[in-house]
Amino acid sequence: MSDHDQSPHLTASSSNSNSGDALPPVGEHARQYETVRNAHETELIEDYVELIGDLIQHRGEARAADIATRMGVSQATVSKMIRRLNELGLVTSKPYRSLFLTEEGQKMAETSRARHDIVLHFLRALGVNDHTARIDAEGMEHHVSNETLSIMQRFIDEQTRR
Amino acid sequence: MSDHDQSPHLTASSSNSNSGDALPPVGEHARQYETVRNAHETELIEDYVELIGDLIQHRGEARAADIATRMGVSQATVSKMIRRLNELGLVTSKPYRSLFLTEEGQKMAETSRARHDIVLHFLRALGVNDHTARIDAEGMEHHVSNETLSIMQRFIDEQTRR
DNA sequence: CAAATAGTTTAGCCTTGGCTAACAATGATA
DNA sequence: TATCATTGTTAGCCAAGGCTAAACTATTTG
Lengths: 162, 162
Ligand SMILES: [Mn+2]
Ligand SMILES: [Mn+2]
Ligand SMILES: [Mn+2]
Ligand SMILES: [Mn+2]
Hints:
Two copies of one chain form a homodimer.
Chain A: H1 26-59, H2 64-71, H3 75-87, E1 91-92, E2 100-101, H4 103-126, H5 130-140, H6 146-160
Helix pairs in contact in A: 1-4, 2-3, 4-5, 4-6
Bound molecules: manganese (II) ion (MN) (4 copies).
Chain B binds a DNA duplex through helix 1 and helix 3.
């Protein structure tokens, strides 16, 4: 277990036992899970596009091999994914050459990057260790509504101007 | 689009452009994505177990049909999932009867419930609307480290005692 | 410029988590 | 008690996202 996994007191923190709360109305409850399922459909795509954008920006080009090592995944997996991104109109690619983002891809990369940054900076502003904040942000970013994002941004601003 | 999706100003918030930051070291970066992939393997399981626990607690029993409507998913999908939970030693079930959690299942339900509650209460304490907070919490909960969870708990406590 | 190395793609396999349609059991009610 | 509505199961389909092994292309180097 890394320091990402120190155990806090997760059981029976009396100050916030939800046991008394009733279950949400069925329809609402179902829509919550549905939102999560939808997020899961797009998150990998977003992470790839965001990473490709970052590689182009910081390295000058995005090569499949780099994506593979960065993502911790086989090259075959990346190759397959690139085909998908292509079909979705997010990247353009010629066989055996490096990748480029389409207009739409660039837009997605920017949006994802901005969202990712807000979540990361928010966690740091909250007091979370940088290393942990990076890990948490990578997963959380896809499940944060725009409403929450705005509030996080406000929190960062307040924290910063001080 | 629901009110969950109001657009804030996501592009070019100068105060937190990460563009200057270099990419993280490769190994670290890969481990971030790996952590997310691992979370995705367990999250559905956790949500099922948590929901089963909630149904037993609030309704007296957990029936497959209720799980299906709550999750917004077909009964066939639930039936298949129950077989998996069984194999994992998280629930016991006799054909055509309602479900019970094993010791291990109960432990997981409690832990998940506690984590879910902290995230939900944290979001509300931050100022997020209850409806949105519920949606966000359902997805975020699986990507929040124990370190962050502790900090969220502290934040709630401070907010509450005031 | 030929060979070796590095990078990319393809084929084929697997698991997960959805679905629909058909069938089976249970339990309520006529 | 026989019937029917509700609930649960099974079979078979699909897409996504992993993998390894093998084939192919590009680039570097002797
Ligand atoms: Mn991510
Ligand atoms: Mn990201
Ligand atoms: Mn939950
Ligand atoms: Mn959840």
